[in-house]
Amino acid sequence: MSRRLAPPGGWPPPDHATLAGASVDLVGIAADVAELYFEAHPDDLERYGDLAREWEQHDTQHLLNWAIGDAEGHVDLVKQVSWLAGVLEARDFPLEHLASNLDIAGDVVEGRVAGGPKVAERLRAAAAHVRATETFLS
Fold first, then answer.
1. Into how many domains does the chain fold?
2. Residue 24 carries which DSSP code?
3. Phi and psi (nearest 5°) for 34?
4. Stated pTM of the model
5. pLDDT in tens, 52-100
6. From CA 98, how far away is CA 107, in angstroms rounded?
7. Does any domain span residue 45?
8. Is 42 helix (H, G, I), strand (E, B) or coil?
9. Is the separation of the CB atoms in 131 and 99 below 8 Å?
């Protein structure tokens, strides 16, 4: 790692979101996504050290919240993911890992959340957008 990774900062992610009137536990879902993510990408633990899990949890809670907000009609998930991809790209984070995270989140949400297939569809579309976009830096 060329520079020291700082702990997550900025706007803290929400713990819950509301989908079709029901509360969704973003913390628990993000933790499950993180476990599957690090099974697929153990190199991130080596590259980013102990803070990798904190960042994964933080970013995934935001992604889940944005996806639910998109399904509810008040957030543009692709716009939010494009912004995050630009930040990650500037930090040399592999964007395929972001796309993979979105796909994993879609699988977890689809299996665990009432109304999850609608949210999973949006997460997978955002993953496809990340894969199809050459660069997110302006």
1. 1
2. E
3. -60, -45
4. 0.94
5. 999 999 999 999 999 999 999 999 999 999 999 999 999 999 999 999 9
6. 14
7. yes
8. coil
9. yes
